[in-house]
Design a protein that fits this description.
Largest sheet: 5 strands, mixed
CATH topology: Beta Polymerase, domain 2
CATH superfamily: NADH:ubiquinone oxidoreductase Nqo5 subunit
Number of helices: 2
Distance between the termini: 48 Å
Shape: globular
Helix content: 10-25%
CATH class: Alpha Beta
Strand order of the largest sheet: 1-2-5-4-3
Structural class: alpha/beta
Radius of gyration: 16 Å
Number of strands: 7
Strand content: 25-35%
Number of domains: 1
């Protein structure tokens, strides 16, 4: 992977039998395409967000890939700014990313560029804010 996309990997670790790679956010689509074709990771099993508030970059977008044929898994993370949280959609690579990205947008406010239908999926359309952000009020009205 490093030979094919040398600028893509920011860091990585292998801990307790699990591989986690941090990927430069601008490289996320080619990296996932590489994992799907050359790595034979046929299945995207999850996309989610992590709010690292008050750290910057504030958010991590986390992708869980599964190679059914090889019984292997890998976790990819891409960090995005809290000021303008956005990253390219991976729906052109894995169609299953569609609803995962919508849920991450809805709950964390991370925008997925070029997503075919980026709108709320969990909260009502008129809901204000993103309830899984660490600075979201726990009780009471938002003022």
């Amino acid at each position: 992977m490093e030979a094919a996309l040398p600028a893509a990997i920011v860091t990585g670790k292998y801990d307790r039998g699990e591989l986690t790679l941090e990927i430069a956010p601008e490289e996320i689509v080619p990296v996932l395409r590489h994992f799907k074709t050359a790595g034979r990771y046929e299945r995207l099993s999850a996309v989610t967000g992590v709010d690292r508030y008050p750290a910057e970059p504030r958010f991590e977008v986390v992708y869980h890939l599964h190679s059914v044929s090889r019984n292997a898994r890998v976790r990819l993370k891409a960090r995005v700014s809290g000021t303008n949280p956005e990253i390219d959609s991976v729906t052109p690579v894995y169609l299953s990313a569609n609803w995962y990205e919508r849920e991450t947008f809805d709950l964390f406010g991370i925008r997925f560029l070029n997503h075919p239908d980026l709108r709320r999926i969990m909260m009502p359309e008129d809901w204000e804010g993103h309830p899984l952000r660490k600075d979201y009020p726990k009780t009471g009205q938002r003022l």
